[in-house]
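Lecture 7 notes: from sequence to structure.

We start with a single chain of 312 residues. Read the sequence below before looking at the structure.
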Amino acid sequence: MATLSPALSTKGLLNLFVVYLVWGSTYLFIRLTVQEGSGFPPFAMAASRTLCASAILFGLAVAFGQRLRLPGSQLKILIVSGILLWTGGNGLVVWAERQADSGYAALVVGTTPMWPVILESILDRKTPSVFLILFLLIGFSGLAVLVAPALRPGLPVEASATAALLAAALAWSGGSLLLQRRPPAAKPLVISAYQHFFGGLGLTAAALFTGEPWPHPSGLAWLGWTYLLVFGSLISFTSFIVAVRHLPLSVVMTYAYVNPVIAVILGRLVLGERITASTVTGMALILIGVSGVFWQRFGSGRKDRRRPGDWD
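Now the structure, written as tokens:
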């Protein structure tokens, strides 16, 4: 495998570039799919998309002769990571975007790279460096500036959407960290298929638990659903798995400060979403915080690499 440095592979970077481009646009298509009048309840939409993607991915894996049978210990990892990534991470974003603008959702979820720092410090019982803490404070101050208008009294819907987006960022970070530390010995296509399947089951349970009505999607909602299935699941999520396999998690997580910029621009151009002073200020501080976390954890020389021999 060609490498750009001891920790950065060309294969990983190419797949990360796909994640950059596609995931920045998925916030727009999620909003188009579940906004008022779309006819698609959020959890039902997310469940149908992920389960359909799972069936296609399993079919492709069989067609390519890839082994589907995995040890129970690896299936447990895929169950937990699939639920964290899809039921928690994606499902809560979809639920929140019933009310939240796509650009706003992307910016809140853009804090995702900061959460692994906190999770790793708890798991490893190691305090982050002073500079890392400083960048975390800058990033979270940007988050505070961004969400402050949504937390004003009398706006419970917006506040609940913000809470869901923060929970989604934490869930996605947890799933990514688990995948990084306990990598299953399977092909990316197989891993993606199982995670979509288990995540889809979790989303189906959420749809039933919340009593969502039967979907009656509009033509625009079907268009968004198709885009999310093909590009958001089949192409970019598999690319994400490959990127996590071949790059340090801190590098992979840099998608989170590229995606919000794309999402905000698309939300403005397509849906006419407002870009306020708090949006610009919050975005700037979050991007500074996230880029600082990236620089401190990778650019400064910290050895945050995948486990040798775990990922082919």
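Residues 27-36+44-299 form one domain. Keep this in mind for problem set 3.
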